[in-house]
Amino acid sequence: MRSIRRRDFLRLLGLGSLAMGGMGRSMAQAIHEGSKVVDAITASSRGAAAFIRDGKVIQPEREIRLFRETDVLVVGGGTAGVVAALAARRAGARVTLVERYGCLGGLWTAGLVLIVLATHVRSSAGHTKMVRGIGDEILARIDQCKHGAIDYGPDSTHDATTDPEVTKYILAAMLREAGVDIVLHGWVTNAIMADNAIQGVLFESKSGCLAVQAKVVVDASGDGDVLDAAGAESVPHVHRIGLVHRLGGVPATGDAKGLNLGGATPVPGVRWVNMQGPQGDCLDIETLTAVELDAREAIWKRLKEIQERPGYENVFLLDVASQLGVRASRTLVGATELTLADWENQREYPDVVGLGGSYDFLRDRCCPIPYGSLLPQRVDNLLATGRCVAADNKMLNYTRLIAPCMLTGHAAGAAAALAARNGCSPRQVDTTALRALLIEQGAYLG
Amino acid sequence: MIAPRRRNLGRLLVLAALAGIVAFLPARALSLAIPALSPFVAVSTLLATRRIGWFTLCALPVLILAYRRRRAFCLHLCPMGLVLDTCGRLRRRKVGAAYARVPAFGYWAALFTIGGALVACPLLLTLDPTGILAGALGGAQPPLSPGRLAYAGGFAALVALSMAFPALWCRRLCPLGGAQDVLADVRASLSRRPERKCAPLERRGVARRVFLGLGIGATASGLGVSVPAGDVGGMPLRPPGAIDAPFLKALCLRCGHCVNTCPTGIIRPSASLSDPAGLLTPILDFSQGHCLDSCNRCGLGCPSGAITGLSLERKNAAVIGLAAIDQNACLLREGKECVACITTCERQAVEEVFSQESYELRVTMNESRCNGCGACVRACPGHAITVKAARP
């Protein structure tokens, strides 16, 4: 019986015993399914239990089960990861995507950050759509669903807001249609390296620790977890950590002065409320735990204030994001760094792989994103995408937005497919061919 | 003697050359060069600011010349005089020396102003013709704007005056001319030899007149600037390095140099009728831009020192005002994902302050870092930031 074994193990561990050290659980064993005893379908790959030696917890050396072998491995199923997986798969590569939660979309869905910022260049001269290709295809499909999106379409002067459930559904559907191998509930923990080249990753799961071998790895983890594991240089950041929530039953009119009722969503009466939150190290588990707990308390406190306002008695808390709103944690030290000064000076790049829309501090014109911002300086077979691309502490407030993530995701996926196809490292990918592939896939490059 | 006809030809040539210079030189070069000639401006500025700038040195030869010969500047150098004299001659019917009955206002104005300069407030310095001409030349350069054209107002008034009463301005009203008369009188009174040419005022009692004029000027100006300032926060913003408002209003020539030279166009001539003394003095408007860290032109080129010429480093440290954030208009309050001010500020003066109690984040301005450059004003999409004057 599993529970007894675990208890035994814990007791032994407490005594500092080494007795469990050699015990492996690689054999299939009987488990309960309802009232029936069946053979376990999958063997656990947890390895031998750890033990304590000289007061230090030691994990014994072990073999990790090779779970998948693929061309392109995308780590993280957020906006950038999903777009990267779609781009690579459509370019003909075999693609595996590993996501730590049970749904796709990352901060866009599980994080409840529902507004897709910076899709257009908006100026007094008009609105020009910058995010086309796969990113826009996703938005268009979400918009086709009932209560899927608001403010989407050629007449809109605002960035679109989508429904998180519709978004999760559409992202999964598109990945499955394309034939991407999706692995959910897998938390990537380490890299498989051969000198300076990454060969794959390890991830933890209910099935234990598993390995995926790949020709090219795309780090769409947001936190640059793979970059760090692979030894690629990155910059740590401290930024605000928030926790978004949604309110239901919000009346359309009323005196809401002083109340933060957030922004409209496609579902009537439902609004999403952003939170700025305290600054903290998003890679520190104690910080994350404290913010998660404090923020939930703060949300309930604010809800009470709203419910005390006449007319708003029936407002209820629909849900709190299952994912903390981490804004910045690590950014890559890349071949090219996006900086605000370069944007202001209208620096031109030879390897532009995306043109982002305008934003608060990038007004009236687009933001070119060079391929170099996805490339690590030393490590081969690895690409960064999404929030962790190379950007200075000002520009990361742009690259972390959903629309730029779509662009860097598209570029990373297409580049990874080309590298896998040609058997070269991403840094050797011909940018002319990459740009041609992106344009073929509908991207707008000017 | 040169024949009158040939003299007229020469005059036309000089005027044509002047027009050519106006057409081809950048506005700021003109508004720099012309007031630099005026010894009246140089002396007033020197006394008022107690600083020796390159303008002071430029005017020194002219000062010596005017000391050596009465009204040497008027006779040989004054471009305004040439223009006005020509205007006077355009009249068909000669009016004769109508100005002769008018008292020597310019003489007293010069003494009054220099007296005021002793208490840092040269009240009538604005009447200096080089400043008026520089304003007209700079203001007439493209791109034209009502504000810049306003600087040509003084010029237009003088032209009209000279058409109606030829030579009245130059002989009786001009303080620059008056200042030269004072200078010549002083020289004559110091000299043992009686002066051959007749003075407009009698030689005797020069010292008395000078002390009387200076004294009245200093007293009146001193009383004028001692009026306490009102609410500082509501006062207009001035360019970095500008001297305090009451003195600036006196010292500013209204030549428009700072307005013309500012690369971002944030310096505007004041058009506030509620402050007539401050009309056409430089004020800042951040709606179209902000004060660049890479620029210190307005101070370096100011001919009167109303805006102190500062090195870039010192100019950037000079406080224009303090930015204030209206928390109710701040987009963060609505939960918007905005970092515009934080990203824009080059001094890291915008700080994020998180309250664990209310679990809310606010952006606040670090007053010791903010110099009021206004970069955040235009950056703020919520229009929540204004820069308020920190001093009169």
Secondary structure elements and their pairing?
The complex is a heterodimer of chains A (446) and B (392).
Chain A: H1 2-15, E1 30-33, E2 36-39, E3 51-53, E4 56-58, E5 65-75, H2 79-90, E6 95-98, E7 120-123, E8 126-129, H3 133-144, E9 149-150, E10 161-162, H4 164-178, E11 181-183, E12 187-194, E13 197-205, E14 208-219, H5 225-229, E15 234-236, E16 238-242, E17 245-248, E18 263-264, E19 271-273, E20 279-281, H6 285-308, E21 316-320, E22 325-326, E23 330-332, H7 340-344, E24 352-356, E25 367-370, E26 382-384, H8 396-399, H9 402-422, H10 431-440
Parallel strand pairs in A: 5-6, 5-14, 6-11, 14-26
Antiparallel strand pairs in A: 1-2, 3-4, 7-8, 9-10, 12-13, 13-14, 15-23, 16-20, 16-22, 17-19, 17-21, 18-19, 24-25
Chain B: H1 4-24, H2 27-33, H3 39-49, H4 54-68, H5 72-76, H6 79-89, H7 105-118, H8 129-139, H9 146-150, H10 153-164, H11 168-173, H12 175-190, H13 206-225, H14 245-251, H15 257-261, E1 267-269, E2 282-284, H16 297-300, H17 312-317, E3 321-325, H18 340-344, E4 350-355, E5 360-365, H19 375-379, E6 385-389
